[in-house]
Write a structure and sequence with these properties.
This protein has about 375 residues and is an alpha/beta fold. It folds into two domains: about 230 residues, Type I PLP-dependent aspartate aminotransferase-like (Major domain) (Aspartate Aminotransferase, domain 2, 3-Layer(aba) Sandwich); about 130 residues, Aspartate Aminotransferase, domain 1 (Alpha-Beta Complex), CATH 3.90.1150.10. About 40% of the residues lie in helices and about 15% in strands. It has 13 helices and 14 strands. The strands form three sheets. It has an eight-stranded mixed β-sheet with strand order 1-9-8-5-4-2-3-13, sandwiched between helices. Strands 7-6-10 form a three-stranded antiparallel β-sheet, with no helix packed on it. Helix 1 runs antiparallel to helix 8, helix 2 runs parallel beside helix 8 and helix 9 packs parallel to helix 13. The protein is globular and about 70 Å long. Bound molecules: pyridoxal-5'-phosphate (PLP). The site of pyridoxal-5'-phosphate has 14 residues, from helix 3 and helix 4.
Length: about 375
C-alpha cells in the first residue's frame, strides 16, 4: 500500500480515561464491582432504561452469560442470522446448542423477521436478532413470534449502543440484550461488554453466573452469612481499571453518536450522487434511529469488491469487507444448520464493503473518500 491517508477507524480518547484509571488504581479496590463498575451500571440503566445492566469482559462474554441464563441444553436450537460475528453463534454452541441460520433482509442486512417462523421447530428455544450497523431489527414482529412460540429473545446489540427502535433503545427490548465496548465499537474500553437484563426474572441468577456460580452477590448484600458454589458460572467481571476507562467513554457516548451520525449523513447524501446504480447504500427503516456505527456499500460481487478495495488502497484509503457468512464457515457447517435459503446473506458476504468512519473524522477526509469512491466505482463500472 502507498502511505495510509485515511485509516478505517481511529479509536478516540474522551479525555477523562487516565484520571479515572488513576483513581481506580489507588482506590484499593481494583477487582470487579467497585465504584466505577457501579457508575457504569447506573449510567447504562438510567440512560437506556433497563432494570439491570452488568458489565462483562467483552460482548462475547455477555452472549455466553445470556446462553447460560437461557438454559440452552444440547440439541436446543437458536435462531440467528448467518451474517454476524462468530461470537453470536459460539455462545450457544458452547452450551451444546445448534445455531439455525435465517436469511437477512437485503436492505438492512438484519435478520429477515418474515423468515423466522419457518425455521422454528419443537427444539427452538431462542431468537438472537443482531442489530447490524446499529440499525434495529424488526423487533415488533420478532417479539410477537417469540411470545407465540414461547421463545426467549436475546438481542445482540454489540454495535447498537444508543440506537433506537420505535423510541426504545436497542438491547432493552428482548428478554436479554448484549453490548460490546471493543475498540472497534462506538464506545470502547479496549475490551469490554455488558449484559442488559430486561426480564427481571433473570437478574438474581445473572449475578450468580457472573460471580463464578457463587452466592457471593447475596453475601455482599448481607443476605447470607457465607458464600458457596450454587450454580454454573464463570468469571464475567471486568476489573475496575476497565470500568474506569469505560465510564469516561460512556460520559461522551451521546456526543459520539451525534458526531458519527453527522459523518454518516455526509456519506449518505453525497455517495448517492457519485455512485448511481453501482452500489447499494444502507437503508434505515423509519422506525429506527441508528447510531452511525458503520457505513457500507454493497457491490455486485466478490470480484468487483476485490478491485474496489485494491483501488481504494492504491489511493491510500482503507476499506474493509465484513462477515464471511457463518453457515458456510468451517465451524458453522459443523455446529449449525441453515434454516432456509440464505440468498441475501451470500450477496452481503460477497459484496459488502465498509468505508472509513470515526467520531472526529474531518470533513475533508470524508470528502476525499467520497471523491475516490466515485472515481474507483466508475473505473469499475
Ligand atoms: C463486536 C461484536 C461482538 C463481540 O463483541 P466483543 O466485545 O468483541 O466480544 C458480537 N457480536 C457482534 C454483532 C459484534 O459486532
Amino acid at each position: 500500500m502507498k502511505h495510509v491517508r485515511v485509516p478505517f477507524n481511529r479509536p478516540y480518547v474522551a479525555g477523562r480515561e487516565m484520571g479515572y484509571i488513576r483513581e481506580a488504581l489507588h482506590s484499593g479496590h481494583r477487582h470487579g464491582d467497585g465504584a466505577f463498575t457501579q457508575q457504569c451500571h447506573s449510567w447504562l440503566e438510567k440512560t437506556l432504561g433497563c432494570p439491570k445492566a452488568l458489565l462483562t469482559p467483552s460482548g462475547t462474554a455477555a452472549l455466553e452469560m445470556a446462553a447460560i441464563l437461557a438454559d440452552i441444553m444440547p440439541g436446543d436450537e437458536v435462531i440467528m442470522p448467518s451474517f454476524t460475528f462468530s461470537s453470536t453463534a459460539n455462545a450457544f454452541v458452547l452450551r451444546g446448542g445448534t445455531p439455525v441460520f435465517v436469511d437477512i433482509d437485503p436492505r438492512t442486512q438484519n435478520i429477515d423477521a418474515s423468515k423466522i417462523e419457518e425455521a422454528i421447530t419443537d427444539r427452538t428455544r431462542a431468537v438472537v436478532p443482531v442489530h447490524y450497523a446499529g440499525v434495529g431489527c424488526d423487533m415488533d414482529v420478532i417479539m410477537s413470534i417469540a411470545q407465540r412460540y414461547k421463545l426467549l429473545v436475546i438481542e445482540d446489540a454489540a454495535q447498537a449502543l444508543l440506537a433506537r427502535y420505535r423510541g426504545r433503545y436497542l438491547g432493552t427490548i428482548g428478554h436479554l440484550g448484549t453490548l460490546s465496548f471493543h475498540d472497534s465499537k462506538n464506545c470502547s474500553a479496549g475490551e469490554a461488554g455488558a449484559l442488559l437484563i430486561n426480564d427481571p426474572r433473570f437478574i438474581e441468577r445473572a449475578e450468580v453466573v457472573r460471580e463464578k456460580g457463587t452466592s457471593r452477590p447475596q453475601f455482599v448484600r448481607g443476605e447470607v452469612d457465607k458464600y458457596t458454589w450454587i450454580d454454573v458460572g464463570s468469571s464475567y467481571l471486568p476489573s475496575e481499571v476497565t470500568a474506569a476507562f469505560l465510564l469516561a467513554q460512556l460520559e461522551e457516548a451521546d456526543a459520539t453518536k451525534t458526531k458519527r451520525v453527522a459523518a454518516w449523513n455526509v456519506y449518505e447524501e453525497r455517495l448517492g450522487e457519485v455512485s448511481p446504480g453501482l452500489a447499494r447504500r444502507p437503508y434505515v427503516p423509519p422506525e429506527c434511529e441508528h447510531n452511525g456505527h458503520l457505513f457500507y456499500l454493497v457491490l455486485a460481487g466478490e470480484a468487483i469488491r476485490r478491485s474496489f478495495i485494491a483501488g481504494m488502497e492504491q489511493r491510500g484509503i482503507v476499506t474493509l469487507f465484513h462477515y464471511v457468512p457463518l453457515h458456510n464457515s468451517v465451524a458453522g457447517l459443523r455446529y449449525g444448520r441453515p434454516g432456509g435459503v440464505l440468498t441475501a446473506t451470500e450477496v452481503a458476504g460477497r459484496g459488502l464493503v465498509r468505508l472509513p468512519l470515526w467520531r472526529d473524522m474531518p470533513f475533508s477526509l470524508l470528502e476525499l473518500v467520497i471523491t475516490e469512491t466515485g472515481a474507483v466505482l466508475s473505473s469499475l463500472g
